[in-house]
Amino acid sequence: MTKPLEGIRIIDFTHVQAGPACTQLLAWFGADVIKVERPGSGDVTRNQLRDIPDADALYFTMLNSNKKSLTLDTKKPEGKEVLEKLIRESDVLVENFGPGALDRMGFSWERLNELNPKMIVASVKGFSDGHHYDDLKVYENVAQCAGGAASTTGFWDGPPTISAAALGDSNTGMHLAIGILTALLGRDKTGKGQKVAVSMQDSVLNLCRVKLRDQQRLERVGYLEEYPQYPHGEFSDVVPRGGNAGGGGQPGWVLKCKGWETDPNAYIYFTIQGHAWEPICKALGKPEWIDDPAYKTAEARQPHIFEIFKTIEGWLADKTKFEAVDILRKFDIPCAPVLTMKELANDPSLRASGTIVEVPHKKRGSYLTVGSPIKFSDLKPEVTASPLLGEHTEEVLASLGYSKQDIFNLREVKAV
Ligand code: CAO
């Protein structure tokens, strides 16, 4: 099967997580992704948090599948020359260096555009160009704080909290992938490349849009009725942390199931959808609540919503999280067990759909990684192992017209 991005060559000048997540996605869909890495060391994640001595760490292997690795010292004149050739023959360059690093290397947007006017140059930075913090280097948790996620995550009586989901890193990479694909479509029309820039702050904020909604509602009416602080607590002039409350119009909470005393994940998420009140009452064996004025409407329930959640926890006390969901699903109640990484890793449905895949690796043996979360009717992305450092150096240089002697010479000066 021809893959949709086959024939698109991408120079992957990325490291750590945000950039690699983007280029990995494009590689799954068929792009020829050449990861350019510093000779000798490569992407820092190759040896961060290693679980097997001398083998690439999972942090690297899980973000760099389906790619080639070319080692190149792009600060040396010989390395720069190779990079220039590669730029002339590529469609996209993706980078997520610290601010100004590419310019200092001699590859400003103007220079790249001069070398290949059709090339799309895609960058991740912590903050967008011109922002008063645009000189800052940024990692995941910094972005979560700068993008509004931390101040709105966690419990009201605790500190701002970081989410485990990579809202700053992988999420920004996904935004960048959308930008690159858009620019590629644009190039089909105009014949011209362009610069695509995504900041981690903007990408986090884009996912926190309902909190920006809430800020405006708060300023207008002084309270937020779906937050646990309503109606008994106080609101200040900023969106508070709402614990596990639902962010939409339906209240929900994480509720204890059988075994919670010893199992920290014996919980489900339970949602009280307004129009599902009758089935909820039936599922819980509380038919008397259906027409009781104290329970019948969402407005009537809100002042004592935690008492309702407590009653539901009583019903859950003799059911495991899986048993509970099996009952509630029959009543069309939006809910799910709180799943652990162990449960997800062994979930047969996720294996069958290719969302979690096992990949053989030359040095590690096989490892688990995520596959494409995007499913197509005509494409089943196949995940292949991440490359060893410099594994494809010769192959890529040969494709650029370098002879065996040229490659030997480049090795002599440690440019590759
Ligand atoms: N050959 C020679 N030099 C190379 C090279 C190569 N193949 N690849 C990279 N380099 C050099 C760069 O030119 C740069 O050198 P200078 O600083 O001297 O100009 C240096 O290596 C990389 O610098 P950096 O600032 O990117 O790296 P860092 O470890 O200090 O910072 C990070 C890492 C992630 C904080 C920073 O890159 C950053 O802020 N990136 C943008 C935001 C981002 O993507 N963050 C998410 C990371 S995922 O958690």
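^ oxidized coenzyme A complex. The chain has two domains: 9-206+347-413, 252-333. The chain has 17 helices and eleven strands.
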